[in-house]
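Record type: monomer structure entry
Structure origin: computed from sequence
Chain ID: A
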Amino acid sequence: MEFQEYFPIWDKLNTAQQNKLLGNLIAKTVRKGTVIHNGSMGCTGLLLVKTGQLRAYILSDEGREITLYRLFDRDICLFSASCILRSIQFDVTIETEKDTELWVIPSEVYQSIMAESALLANYTNELMASRFSDVMWLMEQIMWKSLDRRVAAFLLEEASIESTNRLKITHEIIANHLGSHREVITRMLRYFQNEGMVRLSRGTIEITDADRLAELSEM
């Protein structure tokens, strides 16, 4: 499948605009664990995921991470095109969580087409609103939801993404997703294990009672 089949409003662009996009696309294959955008990189461009998985997160002055959202097949990342989003006042880092194939749309190309196409501008605004909704949802979780509920919800989400209850993930990675400390996550997971909800081994967390985790996450 080619770019035309992945770009959501391809058929709404005219031939010149389509040719401009195709003529400036950059196709990349990126290995797991690669940072493909951060604040020091300037305007990377828009990212359209063909296959794989990306993570968008912010980094505090103390070096703590927290995940804003994740991107999967067919998702578009706007925050990597910071020069388009001039109102963004925080640096977002984009990292590959799995080996990923993607297309990079240069920001100046996208911006020039957006200036001509009201449909592309509307689509971009909708996409931006959706991402900000993700960020606001995250803020609500941090402010109003206890860490044990957030950890339970994260484990269930990860099991859904990976299609397995046996998760190969470290306590440090969970802490980075949730903006916590590894030691705090370890204590929480040991509590879950004592309660029979998970089984811990080196580098692996096995969910043994998904129903109880779901009940906890929804409390």
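Annotation 1: The CA atoms of residues 66 and 105 lie 26 Å apart.
Annotation 2: The chain has eight helices and eleven strands.
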